[in-house]
Amino acid sequence: MSSAGDSLQRLQELGELVISAIKRGEFPKLEMPDRSTNNIVFNKEKNQFVLGPSQICRDSSNTRHVRSFSQLLWVASFAKTLLESGRTSSLRDLYYSSEAYGVHFKDQAESDRVVSDLECVVGLAREDLGIFPEERSSIFGQVTMRYTVAGYEGREIDLTMSPDGFPIGPALVTAEPVATDAELILAVESGGMFSRLIETGAWRRFGAVLVQLGGQPPRSTRRLVRRLHEALNLPVYIFTDGDPWGMHIAQVMISGSANAAHVDGLTVPTAKWIGVTPADIRKYSLPTEPMSDADLKRLDELARDPRYANPESQRHISEFRELRRKAEQQAFSRFGIDFVVEEYLPDKILDPPDAKRVTKQ
Amino acid sequence: MSSAGDSLQRLQELGELVISAIKRGEFPKLEMPDRSTNNIVFNKEKNQFVLGPSQICRDSSNTRHVRSFSQLLWVASFAKTLLESGRTSSLRDLYYSSEAYGVHFKDQAESDRVVSDLECVVGLAREDLGIFPEERSSIFGQVTMRYTVAGYEGREIDLTMSPDGFPIGPALVTAEPVATDAELILAVESGGMFSRLIETGAWRRFGAVLVQLGGQPPRSTRRLVRRLHEALNLPVYIFTDGDPWGMHIAQVMISGSANAAHVDGLTVPTAKWIGVTPADIRKYSLPTEPMSDADLKRLDELARDPRYANPESQRHISEFRELRRKAEQQAFSRFGIDFVVEEYLPDKILDPPDAKRVTKQ
After folding, report:
1. Strands, DSSP E only, in B301-353?
2. Of the listed ranges A151-160, A259-268, B157-166, the one predicted with least confidence
3. Are the C-beta atoms of A187 and A218 separated by less than 8 Å?
4. Most buried residue, A329, B16, B172, B183, by CB count within 10 Å?
5. For testing the chain A interface, which of B96, B139, B205 should be mutated: the one with the most A CBs within 10 Å?
6. Which residue, among B178, B176, B185, has the nearest Cα to B140 in the 3D structure?
7. Residues 197-256 of A with CB under 8 A from B
């Protein structure tokens, strides 16, 4: 996470680059990494997508570039205003705010793209620039965070204080992890599972910081998980539905996505998907539904995806293909509402049969 | 809100009714209000939908009723287990849990329906029975709540402690409002607006408890708003997008829905929709989009809906029909990101030109 001061400095440098060109009587140009598909490469060592060496140039002397060039500068100046005033903006608000300045975006997809351009140019994530999506997932556990947002600077909060959890919004994403009594981070897909793990006291038993993902989580949730993992040295486990979509929620947390190949600090390469695996579905005779054509097609895509080019992932995929059925994480409730806490999770986290326990390093 | 003890007693009475019939050598029967469309009537005095006098009977001597009769008793016994152990369940978990007991539901829609049946039979809302949906909206403001959930009994929380707000989950829905320094409740549709009102300190300026609805809010959010309104004597304002869907979010909070005609304690008849009204769109020259066919069709439906049978609502509808355009609440950002806080909301809440201020009674 970059501090507001560092972010402001990067924006200032960008502005100076443009102004000095103008003062020299030149048309300003901006170089940035190329985010098009053919420059997104899979880095095997990092086990994640990164951008290749290709650069593109926004040249204000080219009339075809003038529009995107000025949009980019406006987003940079909007971000500067946000950071200077300690405010944040949603991507949607940013889109609407442009009208006040006579800057035109065709739709929000276009302004979102220009926000990504700015991320590339200044080498920061949009969250560092005060720009956040609307979606929120939640967190709960034995972690103390120190806020940095205006009005709350230096105030600390214990993330067990609210038994419904805390939304992962701008304040928590920019807060500093201060201390923890937890042993691990357990990210779960559904809100029902999140509530269950809180009210059964499972968080205490497993020493778990619980994160509710709610499907593919927003980038800010992935950033917070990564920061807690690094700052507090907590291993990360991911528990999702047993289907290709659930597997992929975990895989994106582990090795990132092509869309965010230009952003650092989102992945946890040592995170572990603990299920629901196809082997779990068989072992526990879970209630299942047949896979749809879309599910099977998705499995084919994952089989070819470089992020799944490891024996364990390929085994899961071929077992899913054989099974042709899927199960939600709630399916364990068939054995009673506490089964998942009493039996399944201890097997997976405390005493995994097929893997060494991921321990605090 | 019914206490867990009261709820348990109602469930117990239901069980005794069934057992005593069996002991008398009779097939047990259960009477409940009829929830079918022709028994949902609009009560003009209450300005909301209620159930008419028609009753239906689940008769276990009728083989066509045996399935729904036993499903109902199973849901009742599941709820009893939840209440006795201080647990909650999502509607989805309840559906999956049925398998553990050999009780069969065709799909979750069927188990959701049986939960509604049980609400009718015992005259309680599902939240009183420990059963919650997955969705969460958020709350933030100068209110102190005292938790009643297991592990947190008696602990108090100040709802300004988390600058990202608090999720309205099982713990907060069952907590007791203890004290407030607030003057009013301001419910807003979007998460972006919710964040804006927190970080600009608008909550302090307007003395507002902020509630983020996120579209049509879950019933538990409406319950919490109603309880804060009653217990703390706070008037309620609702701020949504300027389109028929936004109007209807407000109207359901004001006068309820046909789906929940059998549940009390969800509506705030004196709540006020403050916009974005079609008049606001004109007055502030907001950026708009043309209404789709679905939007226009929805306006026709609302025009015929008894909940809109008042001059003010009809005026909004006919102005929307003339305008044929809609605006999101973020559209005010065209005048700068603080315009909504500096200009629009003071006009609407502190000094409404076209209506008396709703004051604390």
Report:
1. 325-326
2. A259-268
3. no
4. A329
5. B96
6. B185
7. 199-201
Mean pLDDT of chain B: 92
> Residue A93 corresponds to which tokens in the numbers above?
């608000």
Classify burial at B322, counting beta carbons within 10 Å of its beta carbon; exposed 0-12, middle 13-18, buried 19 or more. exposed
Helix%, strand%, coil% for chain A, nearest 5: 50, 15, 35
Region(s) of chain B under CATH 3.40.1360.10:
138-350
**Contact check, Cβ <8 Å, B170/A164:** yes
Minimal C-alpha gap between A188 and chain B (Å) = 13
**Global pTM value:** 0.91
**Mean local confidence (pLDDT), A125-153:** 92
Exposure string (b/e) for A259-273, b if CB count within 10 Å is 16 or more? ebbbbebbbbeebbb
Do B209 and B143 contact (CB within 8 A), yes or no? Answer: yes
Taking a C-beta distance cutoff of 8 angstroms, is the pair A289, A320 a contact?
Answer: no
| Residue A1's pLDDT band (cuts 50, 70, 90) | low
Domain spanning A4-132: which CATH class is it, in words? mainly alpha
Q: Is-contact B71 B114, C-beta < 8 A?
A: yes
Strand, helix or coil for residue A179: strand
CA distance B335 to chain A (A): 5
What is d(CA A88, CA A233) in angstroms, rounded to the nearest whole number? 29
The two three-digit tokens of residue B10, written as one number: 């109602």
Write the ipTM: 0.88
Contact A192, A107 (CB under 8 A): no
Q: Does B100 touch chain A (CB under 8 A)?
A: yes
* Contacts with A149 from chain B: Cβ below 8 Å: 163, 199
pLDDT at position B150 is 87
Q: Which helix (H) or strand (E) segment is A283 a member of?
A: helix A278-283
End-to-end Cα separation, chain B, in angstroms:
22
- pLDDT digit string (tens) for B113-150? 999 999 999 999 999 999 998 878 999 999 999 999 98
Contact: B169, A164; criterion CB under 8 Å? yes
Region B165-188: what's the mean pLDDT? 96
| Alpha-carbon gap: A231 to the closest alpha carbon of chain B (Å) | 21
Active site residue A96: yes
pLDDT at A136: 80
Instruction: Enumerate residues 6+ apart whose C-beta is below 8 A from A143.
Output: A158, A159, A177, A179, A180, A182, A209, A228, A232
pLDDT value at position A352? 56
Find out if CATH 3.30.70.330 is the number for domain A138-350: no
Does A192 contact chain B (CB < 8 Å)?
Answer: yes
Structure confidence by residue, pLDDT tens digits, B337-352? 889 999 999 999 976 5
Contact across the interface for B337 and A97, Cβ inside 8 Å: yes
The answer to whether residue B288 neighbours chain A at the CB level (below 8 Å) is no
B chain contacts of residue A132, beta-carbon cutoff 8 Å: 195
Give CA–CA dist B96/B100, Å, rounded: 8
Q: Do A330 and B134 touch (CB under 8 A)?
A: no
Contact with chain B for residue A116, Cβ under 8 A: no
Q: Do B151 and A163 touch (CB under 8 A)?
A: yes
**In this complex, which of A167, A196, A336 lies closest to B138 when CB atoms are compared?**
A167
Find out whether B104 and A287 touch, Cβ atoms under 8 Å: no
